[in-house]
């Protein structure tokens, strides 16, 4: 097996593999990926990604949750794979890569942060007061609470994730406090089945839900979001319940590399 690389985005950590030669995908089955991601018996990570060649894009991102199953979009993973591409010598002013939810643009900012364009959002439901469900590339349940730091994330998050409307497909569950001036968030992630220190699609969903919740007038927004593993920011444009030009910004850093 090749060299592996470990990255994190605000504490959401990933194993990255360079599969530009195209050999790895078929060698990796679910137990193998889950074994690499295992915290005590493996490398340890919330997910694993392959960076693959693509004829029309700078690269393709293939993402697996730590349970070893392929999953939907990972926002922090997308930001980390851009940093990984740069570290592999793929240098662009603006990256254009393909992920499971379609093409994404991204930039490495002068301060070292990576900003990633996320999919538009046009559909938000509210299953109960102060709760919102939306898809930002991955499905998210957002519950506004008085203080996200005081919530028992694993027990309350798991109960919602396993509840009848969501049990089959799964959902990521985020507890959020604050408002459009600044949010704090804690996330229970599907496919990790535990709390993670940050979740990029969850942070994006929380910021959009915060705008939606107050029925904000048409305009642009930029909301800092404090996750347990670091500070991110979400900017975008809101017009009559449609959210577009959404960018997720935050740290994306190399941790170490090794041989499997
Ligand atoms: N950590 C992620 C989300 C990864 C996918 C998620 N576990 C799911 O299955 O939906 C992020 O940063 O967005």
From TrEMBL:
Tree of life domain: Bacteria
Main location group: cytoplasm
Record carries keyword Isomerase: yes
Binding-site list for substrate: 12, 65, 75-76, 172, 189-190, 200-201
GO biological process annotation, one example: lysine biosynthetic process via diaminopimelate
Site (Could be important to modulate the pK values of the two catalytic cysteine residues): residue numbering on this chain: 140, 189
Subcellular location: Cytoplasm
Keyword Lyase: no
Gene3D superfamilies: Diaminopimelate Epimerase, Chain A, domain 1 (3.10.310.10)
Gene Ontology cellular component list: cytosol
Annotated catalysed reactions: (2S,6S)-2,6-diaminopimelate = meso-2,6-diaminopimelate
Pfam families, alphabetized: DAP_epimerase
Keywords recorded for this protein, A-Z: Amino-acid biosynthesis, Cytoplasm, Isomerase, Lysine biosynthesis
Annotated signal peptide: none
Alphabetical list of InterPro entries matching this protein: DAP_epimerase_DapF
The protein's Enzyme Commission number: 5.1.1.7
Active site: 74, 199
Pathway involvement of the protein, from the record: Amino-acid biosynthesis; L-lysine biosynthesis via DAP pathway; DL-2,6-diaminopimelate from LL-2,6-diaminopimelate: step 1/1
GO molecular function: diaminopimelate epimerase activity
Subunit structure: Homodimer.
Job of this protein: Catalyzes the stereoinversion of LL-2,6-diaminopimelate (L,L-DAP) to meso-diaminopimelate (meso-DAP), a precursor of L-lysine and an essential component of the bacterial peptidoglycan.
Family per similarity comment: Belongs to the diaminopimelate epimerase family.
Name under which the protein is recorded: Diaminopimelate epimerase
Species assigned in the record: Neolewinella agarilytica
Gene of this entry: dapF
């Amino acid at each position: 097996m090749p060299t592996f690389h470990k990255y994190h985005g605000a504490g959401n950590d990933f194993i990255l593999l360079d599969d530009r030669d195209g050999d790895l995908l078929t060698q990796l089955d679910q137990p193998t990926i889950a074994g690499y991601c295992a915290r005590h018996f493996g490398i340890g990570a919330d997910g694993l990604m392959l960076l693959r060649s693509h004829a029309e894009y700078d690269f393709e991102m293939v993402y697996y949750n730590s349970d070893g199953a392929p999953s939907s979009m990972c926002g922090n993973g997308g930001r980390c794979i851009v940093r990984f591409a740069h570290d592999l010598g793929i240098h662009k002013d603006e990256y254009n890569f393909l992920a499971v939810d379609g093409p994404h643009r991204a930039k490495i900012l002068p301060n070292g942060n990576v900003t990633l364009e996320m999919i538009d959002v046009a559909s938000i439901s509210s299953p109960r007061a102060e709760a919102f469900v939306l898809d930002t590339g991955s499905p998210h349940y957002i519950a506004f609470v008085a203080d996200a730091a005081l919530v028992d994330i694993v027990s309350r998050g798991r109960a919602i994730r396993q509840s009848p409307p969501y049990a089959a497909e799964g959902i990521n569950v985020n507890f959020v406090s604050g408002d459009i001036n600044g949010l704090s968030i804690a996330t229970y992630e599907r496919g990790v089945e535990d709390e993670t220190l940050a979740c990029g699609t969850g942070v994006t969903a929380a910021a959009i839900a915060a705008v939606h919740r107050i029925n904000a007038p048409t305009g642009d927004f930029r909301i800092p979001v404090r996750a347990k593993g670091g500070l991110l920011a979400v900017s975008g444009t809101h017009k009559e319940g449609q959210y577009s030009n959404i960018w997720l910004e935050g740290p994306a850093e190399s941790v170490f590399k090794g041989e499997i």
